[in-house]
Each structure stands twice: as C-alpha cells, then as structure tokens.
Amino acid sequence: xxxxxxxxxxxxxxxxxxxxxxxxxxxxxxxxxxxxxxxxxxxxxxxxxxxxxxxxxxxxxxxxxxxxxxxxxxxxxxxxxxxxxxxxxxxxxxxxxxxxxxxxxxxxxxxxxxxxxxxxxxxxxxxxxxxxxxxxxxxxxxxxxxxxxxxxxxxxxxxxxxxxxxxxxxxxxxxxxxxxxxxxxxxxxxxxxxxxxxxxxxxxxxxxxxxxxxxxxxxxxxxxxxxxxxxxxxxxxxxxxxxxxxxxxxxxxxxxxxxxxxxxxxxxxxxxxxxxxxxxxxxxxxxxxxxxxxxxxxxxxxxxxxxxxxxxxx
Amino acid sequence: xxxxxxxxxxxxxxxxxxxxxxxxxxxxxxxxxxxxxxxxxxxxxxxxxxxxxxxxxxxxxxxxxxxxxxxxxxxxxxxxxxxxxxxxxxxxxxxxxxxxxxxxxxxxxxxxxxxxxxxxxxxxxxxxxxxxxxxxxxxxxxxxxxxxxxxxxxxxxxxxxxxxxxxxxxxxxxxxxxxxxxxxxxxxxxxxxxxxxxxxxxxxxxxxxxxxxxxxxxxxxxxxxxxxxxxxxxxxxxxxxxxxxxxxxxxxxxxxxxxxxxxxxxxxxxxxxxxxxxxxxxxxxxxxxxxxxxxxxxxxxxxxxxxxxxxxxxxxxxxxxxxxxx
Lengths: 314, 326
Known about the structure:
By secondary structure, chain A is mostly helical.
C-alpha cells in the first residue's frame, strides 16, 4: 500500500477509502487499473517501437547483405561480419553505362527538383503568408479558403489535365513542368505553416519599425522574417521532403526518359525488374530514405509544432 | 485581450493607410494565387470539361474547349465491369484506413502522453513511417511480405506454424481460421488497409497528442480527487476533450485516403481486389490512353467524395461545431 500511495496523491485514496469501506483494501478498482495501464503502456511502447522501426532496420540489413546470403538464410535478421557488403551501394550508384543502376543521376535530379521547389515555394509563400496573417485586403478569407481547398484536393484529379496540358505545350518530361506542379502543391501547406508563426510576432515590433520610416518589405525582411526563422527552416525542410518523396507526378511526367528519373521514380520502376537483385534495390531504398530521415531529425520539434499548430485549440 | 486596445489604436492611426495595406496584401498574395489558379483551379475545371469529351491520347492535338460534348464517357464508366466493386473497395479501404489510423494514433498518443526516459526517441520513431518516402517503404514491405524469402512468412511458417506462406499482396481472398471458425477474408485489401494504418497513424498521433497536452492538468487532478479510476478519467475527462480533433482527423484522413493513389499502386498495382478508383483513373489514362473516360472516372471520384462529406457534415455537423466551440 505504501508503495502505491507514494506514486499517487494521498487525498483521493483517503476519500475513496473512507467511502468504500475497509482500510488497506489492497486491490480496489483504482489500483488494479493503475497497475494494469502502467504495464500495458510499456507493452504498447515496445510494440510500437518494433512495428515502426523494424521495417527500416530490415531495409538497412538487406542492403548490406549479398543476395545469395538472403536467399540462403531468409529468416536471419542480424548481419554477420563475414558477409557484410557494400557492393550493393556501389552497383546502385554506378552509372548505367558502367553496368550500374545510375542512382547518382537520380539523386541529382531529385535534389535539383526539391531544392528548386523549396526556393520558389518559399519565395511566394513568405509574402503570401505574411499578407494572409497581417494585412487586411479584399478577398483575404476567400484566399485562405482556396489554399485549404488545394491542401485537400485529390492529386489524381489534377493529374489528367496537367498531363494533357504539359504534353501539349511540350513541357512534359522536363523538370521545369514538374517543379511548377510541386510549387502549386506545396505553397498552400507552406503558407499554412508560416502563417501561424507570423501571427505570433508582436505587432508592436513592426509598428516601431514603421514609425522609424521603414518600408513594409524592409519590415518583413529585417523584423518579421528573422523572428520567424525557425519556422521558415522547418517549412523549407517539409517542402523539401514532399518534393523528394513525391511519386505520382514524377511517374506521369518523367517516365519516358531514364536520365530524368527521380530517386523515387527510379526505385519504383526498377523494383519490378527481375534482373536486379533485391538487396541492390534495398540499397537504393536506403539512399532514398536517408536524406529525408536526417532532415526530419534536424527539424522534428519545429515540424511537429508547425504542422499541429491550432490542433491544441480543439 | 490585450491586443484589442492596440488593435483599435492601430486602426485609427492607420485609417489613411488602409488602401495601401490592401494593395500590398493583394500584391503579396497574388503570386501564390496565380500559381494555384494555373496549376489547380483551371485543371479541375478542365477535368470536368474533358470528362464530357471524346479525347484520346492519340488525338490530343485536336482537343479544345469547343469540342463536341456528350455523356458517353460517363455511360462507359458506369457500365464498365467492376465499377461498383471498385467504388465499394475504395469505400472499404477508406473507412478501414481512417478508423484504424485514428484508433492506433490514439493509443500511441496515450502511451507517450506523460514524460518518461526515452520519450523523445519513441515519439520520433513513431513519426518515421509518415515522413519516409512512400516508394521506399512500400518496397520494403513488399519484400517483408514476400512469399519466398520475406521475413513475415519466414516467421509465420517457421515460428508460428503456418502450413504455407501467405501471398499477402497477391491473394484476393484467403481462409482465416479464428478460434475454430473459418472465415473468407480479402487478403490483399486487408494488407493495404494495414499498411495505410501503419503509414498514417503518426498523423493522427501528432494531432491527438497536441490536443492531449493542452488539456489542463487540473481537470485530471480534480477527477482523481473525486476518486475516478484511470479508465473513468479517460472516458469522462479525456475522451470528450478529443471530440473536436477526432472530427477534424476523420474528415482529413477520409479525404486523403479516398483519393490515395501511390500506396496501393506501388503495393499491388490495383490487382487482387484492391482496385480503388484512383488507380483505375491512372490505368484508363495510361494503359488505354482514354483521357475523356479517365476524366469522367476522376470526376465521379470527386463527386462521391463531396457527397460523403456532405452526408458527414449533415449528420455530424452540429456536434462537430459544438465540440469545436467548447
């Protein structure tokens, strides 16, 4: 009993004991539940860790094993020193002309597309989110609604006309067309995330600058933006992740020319091939995943706050 | 509250600058609006127009606003084999994925609600499925579920005593024996629903956790003083506070799962009874090159979604608003 009371406040126990009978009744409902949930909690934490982490562990594990070793001992889930290999990574990164899979080219394409998307999205979203959060203008609410609608809109419905349109103007297959589509998909999310932060910048700071005669752009550039820098970084990383991970539009636009493939598209296309060992493709999978995981770990706290801002209000 | 005073003063002082402010606001928001109109709004309208036209990839050059309009595409879509089945599959996938991802997200949020050593690590791990590239995780799961050397079937046949490996992603319906009862289950569809849950519970988890942590500690404390047990506190204190966030999550996850393309396409390609509408749209577009019919199918998808949402808001609208105003 003394152990139980030391972890829970004394008052409730006293009350419940007084009301419900004999002192020192050890296993009342409260105690049973408290102990049960404490145990269950750790059981669930263990299950969650296993279920979320194991696939990533398996991915890395298979990427450093030769395919023969996997086929021989498929149930072994730990690496052994004598059959560790990095040849899978070598093969997947080597250009096609040298007998590899050419993932280095894909990495270049994905990086270029994602960085360009981040740069342009921020360039339009920073002023956009500032305007939506700070300035009163005609149609402000309509604009906010439009952004929300885009955020929710099915990309498969957009895919057809964009496919038709870019085919007709000859931009299908070019990275520029794809970047343009990505900007339209990420700008609303970026504005949503940034707006929440601009709203936390005190008016008085901006007013002081305005009184000193600073222009609006100058105020944004040297007052609001530096204050919102963590938010801008988190938004940039999130946009990067979306562009890096995207599959459907890359598939529709870039499929015809292998030299234009992104890492996502390349992996998905090659995954169907029987000529390439699974372990080699797993190396490609790791190459695709690692940049995103690193960015996520850098920005986790900011990202979580940015995405769920407003959720705590119900 | 303190802002109101500042606000009023600001308004008075700025009176003359209102016009300038409005102009600046429009100027700053217009680049985004232009991009969205060009890349989202016009395409949506165009989809609807295309759905009434006879256009194929081959005669794309002649497509224009002034083509001849007809209902042929819709007639073909509705009478195509498997259309109703595909809609039902989409609904089952959506409802299953939505309910399970929110349910699992709730459990996840509850177990990391209070601090413990390693909590940051656990939280970050739980977000991994959501942020990892879809192509990489679908590929990994495909290999894990592989019938020959996948780890799941290895464990199943060697440790759990399954008689034969289960082709999780290529079997339309399988036999499941639960406590002596033989059931026929849609194997592949269940697998993609579980995958959906695995990948998207973190999203629900994030939102529910944020809401949980905003519940004032005094509420819980007061209930404890009154002698409420943990389960009573959960049912009567915590759960009512989560109503609003559940409603928002249900809508968001429903919309996104309903339109989901990547996950199913990458896992099964729409085969073995997982033929959801968005995958059908893609197949009509690329395999048959029938743009008009693909557009009609997409328009129907959007229309069904709108109907579902309308029903949802009619049924739950009032309680949602009440929950939100709490």
